[in-house]
Amino acid sequence: MRGRGVPRRSAFTVALAAVAAILLGASVVRGQSATATLSGTVSDQTGAVVPGVSVLLVNADTALRREAISADEGYFALRLLPPGRYTLRAHLDGFAPVTIDNIVLNVHDELVINVRLRVAGLEESTTVSAPTSPVQINTATVQAPMGRDQLELLPLAGRDYESLLRLAPGAQDNGGIAFSGSRGRSNTFLIDGVENSNDITGYTLVGPTVDSVQEYRVLINNFKAVFGRGTGGIVSVVTRSGTNKLRGSGLFLFQDETLASRGPFAERFEPDGSPRRDPFERRHYGVTVGGPVVRDRTHYFLSYEHVNLDDTSSATVTLPAATAAFSPATLQFLSSQGIDLGLFGTGGRRRLVRPESEDTDRATVRLDHQLRPAQSLTVRHLFSRRNASSGEDRTLLDFQGRAIVERDNFATVRHNWIVSSNKVNELSVQIGQRRYELSPYFTMPRVNVSGAFSLGLANALEARTDYVLQMIDTFSWQLQGRRAGDHFIKAGADVKVFRSDSIFDANFHGTFTFPNATSFLNGRPSSFTQRQGNSRLKRPNEIYALFVQDDWRPSPELMLSLGLRYDRETARTEALREVTGEPGPGISRDRNNFGPRAGFVWTPRRSTTHAVYGGAGIYYDQIILNVQGNARFTPPKVVSVRIDNPPFPDPFAGQITVPPPEIQFPDPDLVTPWSLLATVGYRRQLTSTLGLDVSVVHRREWDQILRNDKNAGFPGTATLTGTGRIRPDPTADGILVFENAGLNRYTALLVEVRRQLSRGVQGAVNYTLSKATDNGEGFTSSFQAPTQPDLNVGPGNDDRRHRIAGHAQVELPWDVQLGAIVEFRSEAPLNITAARDLNGDGITGDWVNEALCVNIACPGFGFSRNSVRQLPTEEANLLRALFGLSAIERFENNPKFFNADVSIQKGVRFGRYRARVRLDAFNLFNLSQHTQPTTLITSSLFGQYTSVVPPRALQLAFHFDW
User: Fold this and answer.
1) C-alpha of 121 from chain center
2) What's the CA gap between 290 and 82, in Å, rounded?
3) 654-707, pLDDT tens digit by residue?
4) Residues of 669-679 as b/e, b for ≥16 C-beta within 10 angstroms?
5) Domain finish residue from 196, 215, 239
6) pTM of the predicted model over 0.85
7) Is residue 923 part of a domain?
8) Does the structure show a pLDDT above 80 at 269?
9) Residue 417: in which H helix or E strand, if any?
10) Is residue 725 helix, strand or coil?
11) CATH number of domain containing 227
């Protein structure tokens, strides 16, 4: 038994693990390759199957060749094919040769093309175009593909392909784009088959340039055992390769403040009456080139882009006037930090604007080489550099300025080897480094004047260097025999070594807190807090995974996908080494992560137009190494100092007190979060260009990581403001433990209609009806009332019952193209809280629930986490009255969401050259789409809108293709 009383091992999984170990032997194998499969059956004009047919597949752009021989029952299969355009030729003595042109294979396709031969003499040869289908009936996986055409035409915010992930069926915003009720940190990102997930945060590691992406595909659910380290979706990207033709492109993109509309909360005018527009300018340059080094053998592709961004950030503050009576102590502090008194100006409520700038370079380089007919080599390198700065205009806001430097270098080498007609081997090695550093321009103590303004940054320094080494070798084979082709087996393992050295000096310069502006003028802070010690940290991790996968076709109508995966991470909590003398166990004790998976596809009467599919499996998440990282602040490695009513500006000239420490560490019995996911669905080709996919998905997740305070006060011992609590351990403040307390439940109906390009129109639209329930959104979530954890169970933060997302690309006359994205989402739940401690356990922010109300009386109230969708104004005022607060005029409607983005492009051709001008419009109709009203009962803004999604913005781009 594992986790919270749910079985995670059985005789079945252990037996399958033993079989996997026997099959694997000593090989190091993995099946996440970004390739496709083409299979089919050869028959004659009577319908009888024809064995022994020579099937040759040739890539139309690179001349890559693959061959197969049809088996006893006419079946043939060609695996691990690079995405691209192909031509198939079938030949057998006594029959006329058949050629099938324009076969398009995309990443993870499992395409079926049947071949029919005619007796020689009736006709010398036959050439036909490949049949196309808007749905894939040969897979049990729910998928969302995006090809090069869509990436070039759809409006891309920031020219980032990830901005389109939200269009996948079942996609939601749950701490990042997530799929089928998972979390945004639970996806697996792949580039050309190697992992691109950030071990520290769980998000994308490094992004290729958009112009270097050939396509991407999201595997939403029911994916095979070859994929791991994620309970969410698999985002698989394929980069572009060169061809036998020299091709290239250039790009210039421009945005500035004159191309953006004003939001409803924007200040319209400067104090002198002139129109207000905060400066903004974005200039984006790009170039690609690709072609042959040696025709039919060696090809290259290069993409580079540079972005200049000049932006602003702002803050509305309340300042004392420069002529105010500053005390000598305050004047001494301002002088020592180089803060000119004149920066306070005339004082009062002011809006400060700080310029910010950013320069980014990104490059993708790829080289493909055919060593010999059976072997090929690919080398790819991803590079990015980002320099960002803020605080150069000498306003008070500049004293929160900082510089950011990021560098990424990741190289991959892949070798493909066709060992024999039924065996293929793929070896990949990835090595990379990521560097990140954030440093403030002014190394000063932070000054926080409550309700008025702040000076300085909370963090003195953040820096991290990560190293990645990954070795992958995929071996797969197709069984021979009387029913050759019935089994296609992969078995493998993944070895990844990760190292990270970091420093995070959070509040190491200290913070002075002033209750109001008057106390700041008088130089009388209420407290000084500071962390002291060593925040340096190493975060090593090794990741191992084993799997065995069998795609078995027991009959022409039925295909089964049976697999087992094993995942293991060794990450320990190095931050505790200085505390206990050795690192904590972290996740290293968790060693029984077996994940059996099964899927099926049933095509009645060997149909090529419709199929019933389904499956179920156990999936394991990756461990976010920020969990181990947060333990760095455990004493005595780092201690927190607090001085009440300190001398100013030198707090250490007075009495120093060391309060009880706050301690953070992972549960020694921490295990890997996991989920059980089941799917059943139906696909149908409605017309030659229109397809329908309907599926029902159910997900149950256990052992998600939450951070809970094990030293919360005894209920009833703290005041309404949370002071005076009595703790179980009086020698410590909070004892924050990262533990497997999180759960998640998700059920959804997914409906998608997809149209292939026909009469100049292609696109897709999907509808999701879903219900999501959990008890926390991520590893920093905790139980609001530890003695009553059931109150934390409620709708997920982004539990929107209805979602519609669609995209379309339209070819118009005169070389004009139109791209459009449309989205609708119903409202998310409201989390109604008070900045008060209602049950007296020292934790403020409680829900008004009669099961919690100790410090006040609230009979009849039953609010809990995310418990309502709309709040009537009458009930809102009853909540206000409980705290003696005045009534509000209106609690605003909890809004739904609607958005439309559009791009329009005009091309002009000059022989082999083409120039394009393009205009993108985001939030086309400039709808004032408010985010949720303020839900904090005790806030003066309770029930009011305070922000909106960005207003309409335009961007102009020029392309040149050759």
Assistant:
1) 58
2) 17
3) 767 777 888 888 999 999 999 999 999 999 999 989 999 999 999 999 999 999
4) ebbbbbbbbbb
5) 239
6) yes
7) yes
8) no
9) strand 402-420
10) coil
11) 2.170.130.10
Q: Are 518 and 636 in contact (CB under 8 A)?
A: no
Number of domains in the chain: 3
Question: For residue 713, with 0-12 CB atoms within 10 Å meaning exposed, 13-18 middle and 19 or more buried, which class applies?
Answer: buried
Q: CB atoms < 10 A from the CB of 121, how many?
A: 9
**Tokens standing for residue 3:** 């986790």
Cα-based angle 51, 52, 55 (whole degrees, multiple of 5): 105
Q: 900-934 pLDDT, tens per residue?
A: 999 999 999 998 899 999 999 999 999 888 899 99
Confidence band for 13, pLDDT divided at 50, 70 and 90: very low
Asked whether residue 650 falls in the same domain as residue 777, the answer is: yes
Beta carbons of 725 and 714 less than 8 angstroms apart: yes
> Is the backbone peptide bond immediately before 829 cis, with ω within 30 degrees of 0?
no
Nearest to 36 by CA among 196, 215, 233: 215
CB 408 within 8 A of CB 383: yes
Same domain? 476 vs 562: yes
Q: Which domain holds residue 51?
A: 31-129
Model confidence at 122, pLDDT cuts 50, 70, 90, reads: low
State the sign of the Cα–Cα–Cα–Cα dihedral 785, 791, 796, 797: negative
Q: Are residues 626 and 601 in the same domain?
A: yes
pLDDT (average), residues 540-560: 91
Q: What angle do CA 211, 217, 221 make, to 5 degrees?
A: 155
Distances (CA, A) of 245 to 61, 289, 292, 675: 8, 11, 7, 47
Q: Are residues 640 and 751 in the same domain?
A: yes
Give the pair of three-digit tokens for residue 781: 């979530």
- Domain of 727, CATH number, reads 2.40.170.20
Are 197 and 333 within one domain? no
The DSSP output letter for 578 is H
> Which residues are 41's β-sheet partners?
75
Q: Edge-to-edge strand order for the sheet containing 446-449?
A: 453-455, 446-449, 511-514, 527-533, 638-644
Indicate the residue type of 842. G
Three-state DSSP class for 519? helix
Question: For residues 258 and 252, is the Cβ–Cβ distance under 8 A?
Answer: no
Residue carrying the six token digits 């990270």: 500
Is 24 part of a structural domain of the chain?
Answer: no
Tokens of 551: 């795609």
Per-residue pLDDT band for 26 (boundaries 50, 70, 90) equals very low
Backbone angles phi, psi at 15, to 5 degrees: -65, -45
